[in-house]
Amino acid sequence: MEKFPSCIFLLLLTLTTHNLIIPSLSLKCNPAEKEALLKIKKELGSPTKLSSWNPTTDCCSHKWEGVLCDSQTYRVNKLDLFDLNLPKHVQIPPSIFTNLPFINFLSIDNIPNLVGTIPPSISKLTKLEVLIISGTSISGEIPNSLSQIKTLTSILLTDNKLTGTIPATLSSLPDVFSIYFNGNQLTGTIPESYGSLPKSFMCFGLAENRLTGKIPASLANLNLVLVNLSGNALEGDASVLFGSKKRTVELSLDKNMLSFDIGKVGLPKNLTLLNLSKNKIYGALPKGLTKLKVLSDFNVSYNNLCGEIPIGGKLQNFNESSYAHNKCLCGSPLRHCKT
To answer: Where is the Leucine-rich repeat-containing N-terminal plant-type domain positioned along the sequence (predicted)?
Structure first.
């Protein structure tokens, strides 16, 4: 599964290069924050990768692995913990949430021995813009307290062991750009309230969970660039995610139980990826598919589609596997239609 989806990669790049300090010979690190970082290192079992966190050096010198400070205030504003080989199972050090109040970027990535839950005290990070917790053994529910951090723009809680339902309260975040909960064990339905997410909201990923129920009709209000709801047990009508005037580039709905007439949906002109395989979708493929000039990844196999595959555009560039196992779909690249 893609670790950092393309639609937020530029945002991450901007945040990781903004307000970085120029190394200085003078000690600028805030003493309380330095103490907190050293405590975090100890609570993580002093992994080798954090050997640069040396109490005799300046934590704002740009030499401490994964630590960056604001160029004006010299307060720690970025903490990037990744690929740490922890000697034993440990929980997220609480000092991250209670003693580093100026963090706007927090990434905890690929640390399998990290266990426990995401504590409600995460709401104390009142300046947090980007939250990434990925590739860990963190479990439990996604805390509702995330909705109290009004500065949040991106939330990526992917490939963990999170359970429970999706917090409906996240729809109140005024500037949220992306939400990704892919690769967990979340249950329940997609909240109806997500139809009121702000216009800034562009990227939505809930793939490979245990979600059920119908896709809320309110999601028709969204104009998303990337949608990935694959690998759940969602059912019913997904046509609310389509539209000829939408800016959608990637739409993945495969491996669900969705059932709607594909022939009646509008198609975003900039679609590069459309995966509807392994559902119960019916009808004839719309001729509008032939007008999608940048379509490069397409799969409608294992559905109940009928009729002739439209000729033109990119459709004949895809092999038989993209169309196979439908009710009565025919035409190139499948068998000829009977006259």
So the answer is: 31-70
Average pLDDT, the chain: 93
Alpha-carbon distance of 68 to 129, in angstroms, equals 15
Strand-pairing partners, residue 304, are 282
The pLDDT value recorded for residue 77 is 96
Name the pTM for this structure. Answer: 0.92
- pLDDT tens per residue across span 245-260: 999 999 999 999 999 9
- Report the alpha-carbon distance of residue 301 to residue 79 in Å, rounded: 43
Structure tokens at 162: 């999170």
Domain range list for the chain:
6-180
Its CATH architecture, for the domain 6-180, is Alpha-Beta Horseshoe (3.80)
Residue 26 has which token pair? 């003078």
pLDDT at 62: 86
Instruction: Yes or no: say if 280 and 261 are a contact pair by the CB < 8 Å rule.
Output: no
Q: Would you call the peptide bond into 47 cis, given omega within 30 degrees of 0 as the criterion?
A: no
Give the H/E segment covering residue 6. Answer: helix 6-17
**Segment (H or E) for 37:** helix 31-43
